[in-house]
Every structure is written in C-alpha cells, then in structure tokens.
Specification:
single chain, 144 residues, alpha/beta, four-stranded mixed β-sheet
C-alpha cells in the first residue's frame, strides 16, 4: 500500500461526481470452493497448478492454502464507509465474492479452479457494503 500511495494510486473509498468508488483488497481461499472435489488422480492440487503458490512469497503464518491470507487481506481494508449520501456505490475487487459466479466443475478444464478465484470473507464484506454494483476481475476463465 505504501508504494501505491507514493505513486498516487487510490486504495481507499473515494467520491467521484457523487458516486462512491470502493476498492476492496482480498485474496482467495480454498473454502470458497463449496462443491465436492472431483475424484481424479490426474487433477493436480491447486498448490501445484496455480503459479501464485510459487511466485508469491508470504510471511510464514500466511498461506493461500487456508483462510489465513484471505483473512489478513480483508483486514487491510478500511472500515466500511457510510454510503447513504451517494447517488450510487460501486465496489471492485480482483477476486470473486460469490461461489455462484463460478461455473460448475464439470464445465471447467481445471476443476480445482474454484479454490483459487474467490473469498467468502470478500463476499461477506461486499454484502455488508451493499453496493449498487460490484465489479470483479479474477476468474482465469480465459485460461480455462
């Protein structure tokens, strides 16, 4: 966040023409995958298939393999803003806020994909914020 601030990147809610724009920091968590695992030995674990596990380095107590990183990232967000004075509220995140936004596993090239695309704590934050619109970007569907 320090680098963002130095570069003039806004990381906290900001009003633009009466519309509140709310960026939301998040990370995925495996429990976002609410469906039973596909029983197929050829399907690699998410920790092997997704390069995040190789390329991202975290302090020893944080991991993408459990909820610790998602919880930590959620705490990086400021308190939810008061929204009643705005014409609209638009929030956005990198990851998906709802498991219902992921196609069924039988349609996915990589059925463990839901373990690395969204976060329940993100979904809970968005629900509490109750924006007019939420935009998310992380799906890997171009790859899948």
């Amino acid at each position: 966040m320090k680098l963002c601030k130095e570069l003039g990147v806004h990381t906290e809610p900001r009003s633009v023409a009466g519309i509140l724009i709310v960026p939301v920091v998040s990370w995925y968590e495996p429990v976002f995958d609410v469906d039973p695992d596909i029983q197929d030995a050829s399907v690699e674990p998410v920790e092997v298939s997704m390069t995040d596990f190789l390329l991202c380095k975290w302090p020893s107590l944080l991991s993408g393999s459990d909820g610790s990183l998602a919880s930590h990232m959620d705490k990086c967000n400021p308190e939810l803003p008061e929204t009643t004075e705005y014409k609209a509220v638009i929030s956005f995140s990198h990851f998906l806020p709802l498991p219902q936004l992921v196609p069924e596993k039988r349609y996915l090239f990589y059925p463990n994909l839901p373990k690395a695309v969204g976060s329940r704590v993100l979904g809970e934050r968005i629900k509490r914020l109750n924006p007019s619109c939420h935009i998310f970007g992380h799906t890997h569907y171009g790859w899948d």
